[in-house]
Design the sequence.
């Protein structure tokens, strides 16, 4: 019998003479694996290792060495710790601190939401949050990188999180371990926030970039974001014919006193799905900047794995949010009020059966509409 305590568990030795409570302490590594369990041998006045565990990356235990186990044995008025060949399995919490399920010969780990088989490195149940990790099989364990990631409850893998330092061109310079979500900083130490900090996809992509950086260190630069200058933005607007679009918008605005804002609002919504749909353009910017097909698996071939940083802003946008930012600025140049830009964006999203705009979509539109780096010139 046993019961847990904050730093391990209490092994209860039951004999005909009564019960003895023996405190066992666990040494846990950075992934939550219980590597060593040790206790105090009262008879010999020394510490003894009760059990030692070493694991392959996906959780199978090393065998044929460090396999000695010890048990508590009653010795007159005290308790000693002796080796044993057949230790009773009392405390079954092992790899990642999860409970080992050996009944019926299953040899799985219970991760609460799912069961994990370390022999094949795969879950035995489908991912309950599969829609948040669409790039991965719903049976994949820890994004196929269990040295870096852990899954605390069988729902979704998390990283050991880092501070990512980048230069002005967006290339990763260093990665420092830290608690909490990934943070990106420039060489001056200023944080470059994500437009959608709550996005699992954005955090996952940062994790992929860190893995690529660690994997290719010294042989290949890894670009986290691609800078997009004000000149490039103005050229893109001219390329889509913003001048003629502005004339139409002004005509609709001039009759709004008679018709209300509806015609202008729907026109802006149509532009967001037409000439002012810049998501593909931002993917191309990311692709041409080097965030595609780098051979490490970190970047989708279409360039959607990179981030965009606009010249007068420190915020990082994934290519879809960057497209919304561009849409917001383009509509602002037409003279469309910010409130109508946000409403039009939501209408456009609903019209294309994508549901209502997310908070990140609306934030990107708002920031784009209020961006001061590009102004209208006659």
Sequence:
């Amino acid at each position: 019998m046993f019961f847990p305590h904050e730093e391990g568990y209490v092994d209860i030795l039951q004999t005909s003479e009564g019960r003895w409570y023996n405190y066992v302490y666990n040494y846990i590594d950075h992934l939550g694996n219980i590597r060593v369990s040790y206790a105090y041998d009262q008879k010999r006045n020394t510490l003894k290792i009760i059990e030692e565990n070493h694991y392959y990356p996906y959780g199978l235990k090393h065998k044929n060495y460090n396999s000695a186990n010890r048990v508590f044995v009653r010795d007159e008025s005290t308790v000693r710790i002796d080796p044993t060949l057949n230790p009773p399995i009392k405390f079954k919490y092992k790899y990642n601190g999860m409970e080992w399920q050996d009944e019926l010969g299953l040899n799985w780990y219970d991760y609460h939401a799912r069961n994990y088989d370390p022999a094949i490195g795969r879950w035995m149940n489908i991912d309950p949050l599969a829609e948040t990790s669409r790039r991965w099989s719903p049976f994949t364990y820890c994004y196929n990188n269990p040295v870096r990631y852990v899954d605390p409850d069988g729902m979704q893998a998390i990283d050991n999180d880092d501070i990512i330092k980048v230069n002005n061109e967006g290339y990763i310079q260093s990665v420092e371990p830290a608690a909490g979500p990934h943070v990106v900083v420039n060489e001056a130490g200023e944080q470059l926030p994500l437009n959608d900090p709550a996005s699992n996809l954005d955090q996952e992509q940062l994790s992929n970039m860190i893995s690529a950086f660690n994997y290719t260190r010294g042989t290949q630069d890894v670009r986290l974001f691609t800078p997009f200058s004000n000149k490039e933005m103005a050229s893109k607007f001219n390329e889509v014919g913003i001048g003629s679009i502005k004339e139409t918008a002004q005509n609709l605005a001039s009759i709004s006193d008679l018709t209300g804002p509806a015609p202008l609002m729907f026109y802006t919504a149509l532009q967001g799905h037409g000439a002012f749909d810049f998501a593909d353009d931002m993917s191309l910017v990311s692709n041409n900047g080097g965030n595609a097909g780098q051979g490490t698996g970190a970047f989708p071939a279409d360039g959607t794995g990179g981030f965009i940083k606009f010249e007068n802003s420190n915020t990082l946008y994934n290519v879809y949010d960057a497209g919304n930012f561009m849409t917001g600025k383009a509509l602002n140049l037409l003279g469309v009020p910010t409130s109508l830009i946000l409403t039009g964006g939501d209408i456009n999203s609903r019209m294309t059966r994508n549901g209502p705009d997310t908070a990140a979509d609306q934030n990107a539109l708002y920031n784009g509409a209020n961006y001061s780096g590009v102004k209208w010139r006659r």
